[in-house]
């Protein structure tokens, strides 16, 4: 499934989007765009006065969407989360609030959206030099995952891929090299993840690693390096060692290649859309469409 | 100075290249190409029989270059290094031998090429979406540098940039974010490196960090994010947290953007050319030209 198909699929069943701390120019404009494209109907939770000012300032149609007035950021997150829990909304969006504050609300034991899974960030990329969309993870939420967290990161990405129609996705655990080196923890983790996959502890996918980026995306490179791998040149999911690496790699693609891109936090009952001030309009829309098409976990 | 200028400069004073463990198809072919382009004259140190077989097999002119016969890898590295020490060669190239074995020979206390500097890898990139060539470091030699090593990595890159005619280069210490977070060691290191630069402990450059990739390469992004930095959108040198990140970022550019690329280990008296089996002909040549134009440290 390519990006255009994802947008088409997302439009099929227009969903309600609960926006936590919506008083943010970029977020409100993206929501209006998404509504106009028939992707979703937003409910804005946040400082009503500020939200209305932003709507007016940007010349957007007034009175179109429900606004839940709540100035306190933590309580606004709680109210936004409860809209999803109470099935008044289908998915969440982060507005003008720290990701950690929203994450805490999502994971609240009494009224949150816990599933027992770790929350992790998945980025979907479609790039002109690669033959299919792929997920990069985690480039936006977990700072330095240990082995257990990486198992969850893989599982979350596999679940998302399955929702996009890709069964048994190929997962590359990225590193600088293909050999295991005890001084490079990411190569040791890769070996363990591969073993867990072989032993059936990580299911519904084919895991290989450590693999370099070139082997991950190029069968030719794998042949040159004499690396035999079902994942080589055909990865659906690329797992990076940590957030610094993932973020730098993602930004390199976003700034220096022709690509489409969408980023969402998954693992809770509902996906959480994260858009950045520096994303372009197209990518903001893609993130909303991607989250809408993932649906409930 | 752009890549084409570097090649022109390298041709001005044709240098002698000492090749350690030259019995490698890719390396020998690259040396012949570089010789034909007037970049250097190689001396092959390694298994003479194998070297001659490779030359014959590839239909290359026989008897053109000096061959020093030495089957033992460590001793071949020693002999190749001594050619540079004895001023019979100007720079080194890694053939069919582990980087660590060659590194050990280069750093030998009695007959090596020590300068007191750390050895580090610098990659020079020229990419169509950025306005000038830049150095990425370290994406090929140092696995996980600590703060002291990063000081040396910055110094080595600044020295190389100065040799290319760039005085007072702008250095970005890359991370996922612009804020210092104690859970992200690269952001703490970045803050320290910036401070050392301000205090005059890292000289002849402008260091800023932590900076995200987007702020590093885009003034627009810096403006959006309200980051004030002389380095923003105009970095000459990008310092990555570790080799995994650097390698993945470098390969993303090499495989998915239009770029020219050259990689060399510096810090010893003479630069060491490293080419990879998967580099294309152009990039192999660029690495030799880049090393030739750096000259002695």
From TrEMBL, chains A, B:
Regions annotated as coiled coil: none
InterPro entries for this protein: P_Ac_Bu_trans, Phos_Acetyltrans/Butyryltrans, PTA_PTB
SUPFAM superfamilies with a match to the protein in the record: Isocitrate/Isopropylmalate dehydrogenase-like
Alphabetized GO MF terms: acyltransferase activity
Keyword set includes Transferase: yes
Pfam families per UniProt: PTA_PTB
Gene3D superfamilies the record matches: Isopropylmalate Dehydrogenase
Keywords (A to Z) from UniProt: Acyltransferase, Transferase
UniProt keyword annotation of Transferase present: yes
Superkingdom of source: Bacteria
Domain named Phosphate acetyl/butaryl transferase: residues: 79-292
Family: Belongs to the phosphate acetyltransferase and butyryltransferase family.
Record-linked NCBIfam families: PRK08190.1
Protein name in the entry: Phosphate acetyl/butaryl transferase
